[in-house]
Amino acid sequence: MREVIEIGLGRNAQRGYHLPDVAIVPSRRTRDVDDVSTAWQLDAYPFEIPCVAHPSDATMSPATAVALGQLGGLGVLNAEGLWTRYEDPSKVLAELADLDEESPATRRLQEAYTEPILPELIGQRIAELRDGGVTVAVRVSPQHTLTLAPVILDAGVDILVIQGTIVSAEHVSTTDEPLNLKEFIADLDVPVVVGGCTSYQTALHLMRTGAAGVIVGVGADDWATTDAVLGIRVPMATAIADAAAARRDYLDETGGRYVHLIADGGIQTSGDIARALGCGADAVMLGEPLSLAVGAPGGGAWWHSAASHPKLPRGAFGAAQASQGTLEEILYGPADQPDGTLNLFGGLKRAMAKCGYRDLKEFQKVGLVLDS
């Protein structure tokens, strides 16, 4: 039973828990790490590690999306980002990488993203991804889905990601034509991932649209300002567990249709990844950790895809930091630091082995304890 606390006369609030509040409890057996698999599959597309890239221009260019795909993850390119506004955004990215904490970084981000989105560049970027021989995933916001999705689909995308800070299955508007996700997805031949969501009810409704995957969370990290701007703060452990309960009920409701959950928020270390999967996620969405890879487009700087919003930005600009290692070292090691920021999925694999589980589906049953 969820704990409900009275916060004042006539007003109650449910208690929620963040990932650091939860700890994993090993079982009665351990397992050889070489016998553990971190593979998962979204619709018809298999991946070696449960890693989906946050569609930020700081981390995802066509080249880095291909590199992540070749390393076993899923790169997601932003159809509303710099790569679809500029023929060559390298000069803009270099300028952003040179900004420091004292610079008017948000204003410069907003200026950079005022250039119009060019449909021909969307097709060109998707062709570059396809030439790389990896699964092609492209993100579009709910507001621009009806306009941009036809261009994206015609270019030959494998997975369409419809992502906003908060996405619902039913958007009410008296001024604009709302996006009916259920009708939209029903007409598509490609799997769709939608989100973020923060509750059982929203997750269940998004699953009922026919989505292949649901993003849980609002991408909150040390640089996100959704809490300060909107008052929305998501306790990720609770949000994932609630969405997993919705998945279980939807599985019963449909007689076996499984919807994958992608956790997006507060995930910085291999321990965070293990906790998120232990709470019920199938994969995690990584942002800032990938910005510290050698060759990241942002040169070590980090910003969320919502940080450049022209009217209400919801993300601070993180000035460039020194690279921690290659993309392969960040994902697979070897690590020369003991803080869990390198060899992210080697750390996950060892956590699974220490708890005696062979694969990710089994690991979702791991014991948990509150440590707060």
**How many structural units, i.e. domains?**
1
The helix content is 25-40%
The protein's oligomeric status is: single chain
How much is the radius of gyration in Å?
A: 20 Å
Q: Describe the strand arrangement of the main beta sheet, using strand numbers.
A: 6-13-12-11-10-9-8-7
Runs in which pLDDT lies below 50 for 5 or more consecutive residues are none
The mean pLDDT is 93
CATH class: Alpha Beta
> Structural class given helices, strands, pairing?
alpha/beta
The count of β-strands is 14
What is the terminal-to-terminal distance?
18 Å
Q: Per the principal axes of the C-alpha atoms, what is the gross shape? A: globular
Which H/E pattern describes the elements?
EEEEEEHEHHHEHEHEHEHHEHEHHHHE
For the record, the CATH architecture stands as Alpha-Beta Barrel
* Biggest sheet architecture: 8 strands, parallel
The DSSP helix count reads 14
Strand content: 15-25%
By CATH, the superfamily comes out as: Aldolase class I
Topology-level CATH name: TIM Barrel
Describe the fold and architecture.
The protein has helices spanning 62-70, 90-97, 105-112, 119-131, 145-154, 181-186, 200-207, 226-230, 236-254, 270-278, 288-291, 327-332, 344-355, 360-363; strands at 4-8, 11-14, 22-25, 40-42, 45-47, 51-53, 76-78, 137-140, 159-163, 192-197, 213-220, 260-265, 283-286, 367-370. The longest helix has 19 residues, at 236-254. The chain is globular, with a radius of gyration of 20 Å. It is of the alpha/beta class and 372 residues long. The protein has one domain: TIM Barrel. The mean pLDDT is 93. A hairpin with a 2-residue loop joins strand 4 (40-42) and strand 5 (45-47). An eight-stranded parallel β-sheet has the order 6-13-12-11-10-9-8-7. A two-stranded antiparallel sheet has the order 1-2. Helix content is 33%, strand content 17%. It contains 14 helices and 14 strands.
